[in-house]
Every structure is written in C-alpha cells, then in structure tokens.
Amino acid sequence: MNKVLSALVFLPAMLFVVTGLRWLVDPAGVAPEFGLVLGEGLGLSSQVGDMSGFFLTLGICMLVALVTGRRTWYYPPALLLLLTAIGRVIAWLLHDAALAPQIGVEVLVALILLVASRRLAREA
User: Fold this and answer.
1) CA angle (45 as vertex; 25, 31 as ends), nearest 5
2) Which of 1, 6, 41, 121 could form a disulfide with 71 if both were Cys (CB 3.0 to 4.6 A apart)?
3) What residue ranges do the domains of the chain occupy?
C-alpha cells in the first residue's frame, strides 16, 4: 500500500516540476493550458515568476517529502493546493469566474499528501 501511495505522490510531483520548468522555458506553450493569455512586460514577469515558483515549490516539496520521509514536507504543498482550490471557489462565487475543473485534482492531491504525511513519514 505504501508503494502505491508513494507513486500517488511521486507522479503529480513530477508533473508539477515539469509544469514549473515549462513556465520558465516555454510560457507561451503552457499559458493556454491554464486559460491564460500571456502578458507583456511586468505582467509576463509575474506570470512566469509566480507560476513557475508555485509549481516548482509544489513538486520539490513533494519530492523532498518522499526522499527524506519527514512529515513536515508534505504540508506546504497540501496547503498551497487547498488555498488554490479555495481561491477558485471564491473567484467563482464573488467574481463571476468559471469554476475550474482542476479544483478536483487540487483537492485530491492535497488529500493524498495529508494521508501520505501520516503513512509514509519516517519521522516528524
């Protein structure tokens, strides 16, 4: 069971790292996948910096959690994903945004991380 759980952490971690790297090297290719029009100037800098930082932090924290077995590394990506999901709901409720289908993946991966923090951690 722990091998399956490790794979359920590893696979999205790699996806997040790849997505973060894509924001760094090919923002024009990845932006449409998020429903974004690539900005210019400061807007482009914000998109590339914020999105690459977000996804690289998610993936790196998840990989560090798996490698070190330290429970604390599971919490930052879980928190980022849950806050993102909450932000999506607020955008939908208050700002007439579409409710993004990615919210399901964000909540699911966050729950997997919380379970993994209990089952896979070798130390606190």
Assistant:
1) 55
2) 121
3) 2-119
Q: Please state, in angstroms and rounded to a whole number, the distance separating the CA atoms of residues 112 and 35.
A: 26
Confirm whether pTM is higher than 0.70.
yes
DSSP-derived secondary structure letter, 123: B
Neighbouring C-beta atoms of residue 91, cutoff 10 Å: 14
* Cα–Cα distance, 12 to 10 (Å, whole number): 6
Length of the chain: 124
Distance CA 85, CA 106 (A): 6
Whether the per-residue pLDDT at 33 is higher than 80: the answer is yes
Distances (CA, A) of 75 to 59, 102, 105: 12, 20, 17
Q: Which structure tokens are listed for 105?
A: 């993946």
